[in-house]
Amino acid sequence: MPVVINELELVVESPQPGQPAAAPAPAPSGLTPLDVADVVRHLEERHARVRAD
Q1: Distances from the Cα of 52 to the Cα of 41, 44, 47, angstroms
Q2: Spans of biased composition, class Low complexity (predicted)?
Q3: Average pLDDT, stretch 21-29?
Q4: For residue 27, what pLDDT is reported?
Q5: Distance between CA 5 and CA 35 in Å, rounded?
């Protein structure tokens, strides 16, 4: 069934019998230890600035 949104037409087709469905997208890997360290450092710097006022 086509859907027109602001001059953009989207047509969604159901998979044909016998065709494999599209594989699901891989799940995000989550935060790495480096990401967590960056967040903690950012929060510590922010707390230091708030205490300085």
Answers
A1: 17, 12, 9
A2: 14-30
A3: 64
A4: 61
A5: 38
pLDDT higher than threshold 80 for residue 52:
no
- Other C-beta atoms lying within 10 Å of the C-beta of residue 29: 6
* 45: three-class secondary structure by DSSP: helix
Q: Phi, psi (5° rounding) for residue 52?
A: -70, -25
* CA pseudo-torsion sign 45, 48, 52, 53: positive
Which residue has tokens 């047509």? 11
pLDDT of amino acid 41: 94
Alpha helix ranges (H) inside the chain? 33-52
In the block, tokens 């989550």 appear at 30
pLDDT of residue 42: 93
